[in-house]
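QUALITY CONTROL LOG
STEP: pairwise intake check
CHECKER ROLE: data steward
CRITERIA: each record must contain a sequence immediately followed by its structure tokens, with no blank fields

ENTRY 1 OF 2
RESULT FIELD BELOW
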Amino acid sequence: MSMKFDMGTDTLTTLQNSTGGSLAEMYRLVLQLRDAAEPLEKKFSGDGQKAFAQFKSETDVITSSLRIAMTRINEGQAGMSAAYADGDSETEANAKRAMGSQNFNAARF
């Protein structure tokens, strides 16, 4: 069984845009979770209030870490896209150079 890998020229750009959209959505959802819990803050006192404050601070750490991680993924995808485009251009240039050095007149009948 053989597998063929065929990637279009826009595949990595599409992936990069999708990752950016996913980042925005995840960030929004974590903030939504934090904001949804906000009304509970006044219901706690003592250790419960401390635990809630820790929850809020950890959601800030999570959103920050998430943003950093997804930004790095997006940067990696941008690098892969650039490398793919460079490789595609180089392949085209090599093919044209190889064709230019051939004597196609010898193939005429």
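ENTRY 2 OF 2
RESULT FIELD BELOW
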Amino acid sequence: MSRYRVGTALAATHRGLALATVVVAVSAAVAGVMALRVPTVWTGLLAVVTAMVLARRARAFPLVAEVLGLLSATAVVTTALTVVWLESSDPAGPLVALVVLAAAPSGGVGGGTRRACASAAPPHG
């Protein structure tokens, strides 16, 4: 198989993956916004989890179109969540959710923490 054919196949695969990722991101954003049409504690938590999953998955994709699609969907769900909670009587809800979203550790933090703890631990003898 020639390099040209491999490059063409890889480009077609990336286009398909980017399109599928954007479609799933739009679907998840619509689901998060639709869940907030009837604001309850559970729909609010569902929207927070949806936004967290979208933001975390953006790190796993190499193409700009995929990352922008996922981060845009995260922004849509977070904005809808903030608007719904600002209309409610309890302003503490959006603050807690936004702090959780902002403070969620990135994927590499867990591995770095494990390595640091392992190197600080006494050797097994």
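INTAKE CHECK: passed for both entries
DESCRIPTIVE NOTE, ENTRY 2: The mean pLDDT is 78.
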